[in-house]
Amino acid sequence: MRLHKSTFVCIAAVVLSLILAAVAWFLLPDSVGMQLGVSGQVQNFMPKPLALLLPVGLCAVGTGLSFTEERRTAGLILALISPVLVVITIFMNHSF
Q1: Rounded to whole angstroms, how far apart are CA atoms 66 and 79?
Q2: Fewest CB atoms less than 10 Å from the CB: which of 23, 69, 77, 86?
Q3: Which pTM does this prediction carry?
Q4: Closest CA to 51 of 20, 79, 95
């Protein structure tokens, strides 16, 4: 079985997501804000492990989908969104 180019991109996105999640583990507080209200204040919180595992899991699902020809595009989109979600979570919750 020969892997498609998009599958390699998805695998790279998984590695990037894991690296970003490891960095975020040290930067983020124990309770991570996940939803901003209209006023710009955080309204919904989530435990840090769950907040970091969800994007990585989403990336893994996208990579799994990229192995099938019918779902290759959907898998690529899911895999590429994941690192972006981790970066957004870091910027939303960490004051530099």
Answers
A1: 9
A2: 69
A3: 0.82
A4: 20
